[in-house]
Amino acid sequence: MSIRLSINSKELLRMNRLLVILLASGAFLTGTAEFVAAGILPAIAKDLNISLSLAGQLITAYSLAFAIGTPIVVSVTSRMGRKEVVMGALALFVLGSMIAWMSDVYLIQFVARLILGLSAGIYSVVAVSSIAKLVPPEKMGSSLSAFALAFGAAMTLGVPIGIAIAAAVGWKAIFALLGVFSLIVLLLLLRLLPQIEGDEPVPFVRQFSVVKKGVIVSGLCITFFFLASNSLMLTYLTPFLQNVLHLEMTSVGIVMSALGMIGIIGSRIGGIGVDKWGSVPMLAATLLLSVVTLGLLPAAASWLYAGLFLIGLWFSSVFMNAPALNAYFIQQAPSFSNLVLGINLSVVHLGNAFGAGIGGILVEATSTVFHHAWVAGCLAAISVISALVSFAWRRKGKVGKKKEASMYSIENQRTGDVCKL
Known about the structure:
By secondary structure, the protein is an all-alpha fold.
């Protein structure tokens, strides 16, 4: 009997690992749809006979649909089974990809980007919460890191592959391939993904009350300021490498590829760290690493290898942070994880926009990107302060629960004593 149970548990672990890979594959495809647009923007503008700035609004449409639509739809569908929502999000993503492939009209392309942004946001949230429910708690970090790794791979592998496809056969072919591969993932998940319960049934208005909790509000501040810091630095990383570290463009390409590999390794380390030490220590460590490396970077700019080393450490902190932050939110609001993760993703996009905007203002004011690392470091420092506040709220909540449990135990004991009398 014990041998049979051992075999079954091994088969279950193997199946769950396969499901995590499939869900991460969906993240790679949706992530590629998001990131590739910036690389093929000139081709889109030329093909649709529009200005580059108008083509850029396609990226804005994606971000707005992602940021605004995701938490609303995730909240409305929170009681539904996770499998149905994952299937629906992927089906919507396939539809958006097919529309982008077939249309030559700007307005229809705009609608396609709205559909892609909304479906990618819903999929990202529900897939992450599904992974958290599929795997045991001690494996949650490494499993979430696989999901984060898929997004990193979309940036470092999916975008260059997409640009190469666009150069060879046209940019629309990218969306045709994304639609086909997403359909394959959908069919495999339809066959293999078990039924996973949604969140507990709670009125729509009460669901958003969880956002008022101090631990969640301060946690979202961590996301906003950390992502703003990352966006400010990442948006102007190429000019920084060229103008501050004095690298040639060919060397910049090599550095970016190396950073992609560092990001993939960082995601893995972040997940293992969450499993081994917990989300709080990993969250604190990655935030502090970001502050220190960004603070030292301008001072080390005159030494090329020291500068590259610090950039590598900073980039690893960006990707190590993702599984820790996701795990932290899931642990603080397990009954509302889908909603909180959805709002967090919206805050991610808002932070990205804020950071890029600050970077633009800074370069206009100083005519250099030398100070960007220091300003990014200041934003990261604010995220550290937000983390300390969130951790304090977390400890306060734990103490409150212990007091409630103690009072309940005393009350039960008194009741028992009265019954004896």
